[in-house]
What we know:
Layout: H1 2-12, E1 18-21, H2 22-32, H3 34-40, E2 43-46, E3 52-55, H4 57-73, E4 82-90, E5 97-104, H5 136-146, E6 150-155, E7 161-168
Parallel strand pairs: 2-4
Antiparallel strand pairs: 1-3, 4-5, 5-7, 6-7
Amino acid sequence: VPSLLSLSRVTTSDGSYVEVDLDDAVDEVVSDLDVLVRETGGTVEIERPLPRVVAEPTMLRQLLQNLIGNALKFRRAERPSEVRVGARAEGEGVDAVVWIRVEDDGIGFDPARATDILRPFRRLHGRGEYEGVGMGLAICQRIVERHGGRLEANSEPGRGSAFRVALPVRGPATRPAEDA
């Protein structure tokens, strides 16, 4: 139920879009995930400096937390995950986007399931293997859509995963009526 509530909040949010420093946002998320980092023995390497992007800060942090948290959680049994986070701006003017990348060396998944895992309640593993209900990536997908962006998932079983998010540098082209 908390996951459904989170998904609903993304859909109904009339969020305020402001310029966000991705360095600060990633630092906050990694700090929030400190317990998971310590429990899993994982590492999070951040390729700095990260660019700025116009986004709804709470949703952007949720997006980063879900992606980085999954990268730490879905690790191989024999070793902790090594997670890499990076971003770069590309293009100019209204076409400019920021590509955010979260990669890991974890368990990976079948690439044929890449779009399927972005839908609610889609789990690739049994409930006893990993915590969660299969909502994290669906929430990520909704956040990215809400920002007028795109989410790509690439993976190979046993060789890790890479998630790339393209967000318009200037924020979504259309915003809720209250923001217009």
